[in-house]
Write a structure and sequence with these properties.
The protein is α/β, with parallel strands linked by helices. Helix content is 38%, strand content 15%. A hairpin with a 5-residue loop joins strand 8 and strand 9. Helix 4 packs antiparallel against helix 11. The longest helix has 26 residues. The protein binds pyridoxal-5'-phosphate. The site of pyridoxal-5'-phosphate has 15 residues, from helix 6.
């Protein structure tokens, strides 16, 4: 395996190639193949970008047909047939059946682009600079989004330029059982001397991804929505990782029965691993002036095509949603078993998650790394999350076959035993 050029030329900033130091050549469904012909089951799936697996045949066909018909690839934000079909299908298949009425801002193609646009829109709409965000939140690494991201490693990478415009509140569970952290937020909002500048918006992940697979309680989310309404604050759900079916509903906030004012999606939105993002907003919030927020890659035609095909193929009924919930229970059960075994071995562990966004908190990043490194040796790609990388996380494709899912879980269980006993 030839890796010298990769190691020599690519910046030290690279990350995933350190955990999975091989050269991949092919990928199909939930499986990756490397140059040596070794196969791996993929429980990382592009950190939640490949909900429909690698190279799904239906999506691939739609893309190939589009390319060979000389469909527009780039067109700034000029109207294209692909753009129109995307918006039409988003409205008909995703929004209307859920009783949602949103306008769509097609931003630059990464998650952080969408978050930047979302928080800026909130500021413009409310005329206030502050955004409330939560401990362990991850919302991207460009300056505006970074201000709402908790992780010190990313925050220190500004070289000392202060991040501005965000105030952190404790996420659900942050103070341990028995404390409703929203008591604190609500008290500050009502206290003229509490020191909190009234925010334009609150940005929240319903299940924190990079922060360690922390699901907010559904009652907590409901209460957060109520607090926002009562204080004229916009509720922004960052559904970049938890959305597109990951938790067992298309939008992760559906579980709580809440309706955010603004929603961000990216990662699995293109359905095919292509860069793509959008911001959804209540129509009356669309305060943008033409061209006030721009970008060269606003809506990617090839991503419109695969996203549209995915809406049509997967989201016309609730089959996928039910399947995600069923597979989520399989992962939950096995993770609970692994966590119990680890606890017995003297590594206190617990499992948590929602749908197919699940993790085992093993309490220590080094222990988690030992297990995931062994798993890679055994043919499973799986990563960690959390403030010290202490959570082993499963983000397998939603469409993974039961055989691959069970094999992946077997490998993980065996790897924990090999690494720790
Ligand atoms: C990944 C992620 C982002 C940032 O997306 P990028 O494409 O990496 O910029 C923002 N928010 C959440 C919740 C994410 O998981």
């Amino acid at each position: 395996m030839q890796t010298q050029i990769l190691e020599r030329m690519e910046s030290e900033v690279r990350t995933y190639s350190r955990s999975f130091p091989t050269v991949f050549t092919h990928a199909k469904g939930a499986r990756l193949t490397d140059e040596e012909g070794r196969e791996y089951i993929d429980f990382l799936a592009g950190a939640g970008t490949l909900n429909y697996g690698h190279n799904h045949p239906k999506l691939q066909q739609a893309l190939v047909d589009y390319i060979t018909s000389d469909g527009l690839v780039h067109g700034l934000d000029m109207w294209s047939e692909a753009r129109r079909s995307y918006l039409e299908t988003l409205e008909e298949v995703i929004l209307k059946p859920r009783g949602l009425d949103y306008k769509v801002h097609l931003t630059g193609p990464t998650g952080t682009n969408a978050v930047e646009a979302a928080i800026r829109l909130a500021r413009v709409a409310k005329g206030r600079p502050n955004i409330v965000t939560f401990t362990n939140g991850f919302h991207g690494v460009t300056m505006g989004a970074l201000a709402t991201t908790g992780n010190r490693k990313f925050r220190e990478a500004t070289g000392g330029i202060p991040t501005q415009g965000a105030s952190f509140m404790p996420f659900d569970g942050y103070m341990g059982d028995g404390v409703d952290t929203l008591d604190y937020f609500e008290k500050l909002l009502g206290d003229k001397s509490g020191g909190l500048d009234t925010p334009a918006g609150v940005i929240v992940e319903t299940v924190q991804g990079e922060g360690g697979i922390n699901p907010a309680g559904l009652d907590w989310l409901k209460r957060l929505e109520g607090i926002c309404r009562a204080h004229d604050i916009l509720l922004i759900v960052d559904d970049i990782q938890a959305g597109c079916g990951r938790t067992g509903k298309f939008f992760s906030f559906e579980h709580a029965g809440i309706v955010p004012d603004i929603v961000t999606n990216s990662k699995s939105l293109s359905a095919y691993g292509m860069p793509f993002a959008h911001v959804l907003m209540r129509p009356e919030l669309d305060k943008w002036k033409p061209g006030q927020y721009n970008g060269t890659f606003r809506g990617f035609n090839m991503a419109f095509v695969t996203a549209t095909a995915a809406f049509k193929h997967f989201w016309q009924d609730d089959k996928l949603e039910r399947d995600v919930q069923r597979k989520g229970r399989i992962v939950e059960e096995r993770f609970a078993k692994i966590a119990a075994w680890m606890t017995e071995q003297g590594y206190p562990s617990s499992e948590r998650g929602r749908g197919l966004m699940r993790g085992i908190d093993v309490g220590d990043g080094e222990i988690a790394d030992k297990v995931t490194a062994k798993a890679f040796e055994n043919g499973l790609v799986i990563e960690t999350a959390g403030q010290s990388g202490q959570v082993i996380k499963c983000l397998c494709p939603l469409v993974i076959s039961d055989e691959d899912l069970l094999e992946g879980l077997d490998i993980l269980e065996r790897s924990a035993h090999e690494a720790l006993s």
